[in-house]
Task: structure prediction
Amino acid sequence: MENWFEVKNSDCIASPALLLYPDRITRNIRLLKKMVANDTSRLRPHAKTHKMLEVSKMMIDEGIEQFKCSTIAEAEMLALSNAKDVLLAYQPVGPNMKRFLKLVQEYPNTHFSCLLDNIDSIQNLNELAKELGLKVSFYLDLDVGMGRTGASIKNIENLWECIAAQDHLVLEGIHGYDGQINNVDSAIREKEADSGYDILKEAFDYLQEKCAYPLKIVVGGSPSFTRHAERPNVACSPGTFVFWDWGYSQKIPEQAFDVAAVLLTRVISVINEHRVCIDLGYKAVASESPLPRVKFLNADDAVPVLQSEEHMVLNVNDSQEYPIGTELYAIPLHICPTVALYDKVSVIEDHRKVKNWQVIARNRMLNI
Result:
């Protein structure tokens, strides 16, 4: 629908603001399910994108029971949403180890696990679990080509010897994140996804022979989801699908998700006949990428040329078409860190703001 993003009562929304469209979110969740033949056991969506109770509950209402997250706060948010299974896809260290175990104690209706990739962390978590009389689940994190975290496949034997010696840890499966995959050519992405999966499968086969119970595989993010969704024996972990963004719509055109999160910004200054300034600075949209960091939905001629903390300067064909107060709607290049910049979002239904949702897990700490 033309101008589906416009808000009739926008005068009640201070800019810059992040707008969410629940009907489009629902379509994205259902498309995700369709891509795995509606087998939700093959999905473990990443909560780092949305960080909201309401969005988590929308997925749960659609039958999704497993989730992945990056922080203790996100894990607690998922527990508050009554998620059944939560993987903290981040290796806890220092005080976060105790916080993770506190989660296990405080939310018994949610099954928690975390990532571990080295002997010291395995032994440390086991000792803390022993002190508390807990049995704690974890996934062994493997480096599948990104070179960021994860154990080398070369260390699998030594790691297993350590794992087998721990009485208070339960190896639930293996995990691999292939965030290095982002080529716009789907054939190249498929080849790279297969290469990373081969590493996981080698580790899985070795460990499964040692374990008397079935192990699981959790793999991938958004760019590799198309390929991994074809594998019946893995749980996939895309996150961006729920809101989508300009970056992935360009890089992964075969994933036909709807943009469900839009930035509202306004012209605050007319600089000259070809330049205007809007209130969309670093603090309002993720700025880790070069300009342009947004795509405007109702200003095709607007080109960002400068950005600072509170401002963005645009080149336009004719600034008279953009008087002070003009409302612009924009899709961020990268939605995940953009969401983290807002403490609340405006929920839009039938072209009207109807309520706010708190971005609760943007906080570093909730209760634990």
